[in-house]
Predict the 3D structure of the following.
Amino acid sequence: QVQLVESGGGLVQAGGSLRLSCAASGRTFSNYAMGWFRQAPGKEREFVGAIAWSGGRTYYADSVKGRFTISRDDAKNMVYLQMNSLEPEDTAVYYCAAKHSLRAGVVGTQYDYWGQGTQVTVSS
C-alpha cells in the first residue's frame, strides 16, 4: 500500500507559478513511476505529466509542455510539479498517482494509488 498526500495548491493570477508537492509513504517509493492528473469541474480527469522511477524519463501533456516540470526526490519520498505561466484553463483539482512499474503511464487506469487532490485556481 502507498499513501499519497498532495499539497501546494491555491489561488494564483494568470501568469503566476505554483509548485505542487506529493508526499509518499508505505512502500519503496523509488520502485514507482509517478504521475500527475487533473480534473476540472464538469470535465473528465486528464493526464498532466509523469516521471519514471529512479528519476528517469518525463512525459507531459501537450497543454502543459514547456510550462510544467515534474521532478522527484526519492530520498525524501517526494514528487513535485512546478507549474509556471499558469492559465485560467489550468484551474482544476490536481492529483498525484503512483504506478508500480518502471515506466510511467499517461492513462489514469494504469496507476495503482491516488492522493486526495489539491485545488489549483488560476484567476484571469
Residues 7 and 20 are 6 Å apart (CA to CA).
